[in-house]
Amino acid sequence: MIKSRLSKRIAVLTFLVVMALPTMAFAASEELGGEASAYIAKAIGAAVTMSASALAAGYAQSKIGAAGAGTLAERPEAAVWIVVLQALPEIIVLLGFVASIMIIGMPVTPPPGG
Amino acid sequence: MTKMATEKRAFQPVSGKDYGYANARVRGMRSRLLAPTFFEQLLGAANTREIIQQLSATEYESDINEALIRGLSAANVDIALRSNMVRTYQKVLSFANEEAEYILSTLLGRWDVFNLKSLLRAKHFRLESDDLGGGVLPVGTLSSHDIGALAQLEDVKAIVDTVATWRLPFAGPLRDGFSHYIASGELLPMELALDQHYARWATDRLSRRRTNVKIGRRILGVQLDVGNLVMALRQLQADVAAGDAESYFLPGGAEIDLDLYLSLVAKSDVDEILNELKKVSYGRLLDEVVMTYLEQNSISIFERALEQALVRQVVSLGRGDPLGVGVGIAYLWAKQNEVTNIRIIVKGKEVGMPLDRIRKELILV
């Protein structure tokens, strides 16, 4: 849980900015036309995918890290296992990275009749 | 309260309710608890020297080495075991988060009552402070410095006054019980007042509606139930007036309320008590050992069954929510049970008790 007041404010502000970005981008794309609008949509999709997976990995690592530190304090011989467990959530962010690359690389098809 | 003790207690518990770090550490410590097979090895030891050798290869090594400077004896092994237990409890409390520290310190408050009772008895019977060693275990609010300072006092009145000066939560019941002590010359009213105060104080502290607090409350409730049941069974053998029976009741139990308790103490034999207990979960538990009771005709069979059930129930909490307070509570109980088992073996061996008898006294979880 986020405890400090400053951390809470930063989290809320980041959330609001992220939510406001697509609206602002689409408002801008109206002026540029259909293809530009599709590129902006892809960029936003990739950004959301990447950041959500990075946040999820960070959250998982914070929990594993705390428990790992506790285990290491009592059982230093478990160090290798702790490093392996600590690295596991990186898979989440890697999958997010791959998904965002795929989104960026998607061909832009013109809207029917456009 | 001594300055050193206050400083020692002023550690800052980890904030919040994140159990990840603390529980992982407790699980690491739990992995070093002695296996049931180790107790069989201890039972097979020829003498105290061999027991010490076996214990020196375990978690108790540093405490054993420290205590044995005073000589190789069962009494010094006892000191080492107690010192290890106290150190372990303090260690767990030092890294527990705020919520766990609150719940654990409430449950450990029973040791404050135990320590105060030992001090009062020592002063009442005019024992030297050195004789007190085995009777105190500073794992509650009272540190070893506080207990040492109280042990140096002259008499029961001085202890009551000092506890009031330190503004400990037990000052009130001690003061109330002291007037009875002066009038009758008996410690029992003071001890009862302490027990009842702890039951009320702990029940009140654990009345919040949080999952982890509820776990602590459940354990406290079972603990108080066991106390009340043991008292009801013992009153079968003692000649207690009906009016006095109520004064032995500890409020806050999980299943045994005052009405049930009074109906239990009104019974004239064990069969009637067991019939009455069929309404609650303890009935089935006591029914299982009724044959052993008939063979040995000793109330202690029931006391032992209740004690075992309490230990098993608390230790099973450790297999529950991995991110809850149960892991810590279970570990502290398991550690206490381990130390008790070793003490039984060491003392049993020393006095030449038969192995089967020692084995029966152990609670292996």
Secondary-structure map:
The complex is a heterodimer of chains A (114) and B (365).
Chain A (H helix, E strand, L loop, with lengths): L4 H28 L1 H41 L4 H9 L2 H16 L9
Chain B lengths: L2 H7 L10 H11 L5 H8 L4 H8 L5 H7 L6 H22 L2 H27 L19 H8 L4 H10 L5 H14 L3 H18 L5 H24 L7 H4 L12 H8 L4 H7 L5 H6 L2 H7 L3 H17 L9 H25 L4 H7 L4
How does this structure look, described?
The complex is a heterodimer of chains A (about 110) and B (about 375). Chain A has about 110 residues and is mainly alpha-helical. Chain A has a single domain (about 5-105), classed as Four Helix Bundle (Hemerythrin (Met), subunit A). Chain A has helices at about 5-30, 35-75, 80-85, 90-105. The relative contact order of chain A is 0.12. The model of chain A has no long low-confidence stretch (mean pLDDT about 85). By secondary structure, chain B is mainly alpha-helical. Chain B contains 20 helices and no strands. Chain B has helices at about 5-10, 20-30, 35-45, 50-55, 60-65, 75-95, 100-125, 145-150, 155-165, 170-185, 190-205, 210-235, 240-245, 260-265, 270-275, 280-285, 290-295, 300-315, 325-350, 355-360. In chain B, α5 packs across α6 (about 75-95) and α7 packs antiparallel against α11. Classes of the chains: A mainly alpha (about 110), B mainly alpha (about 375).
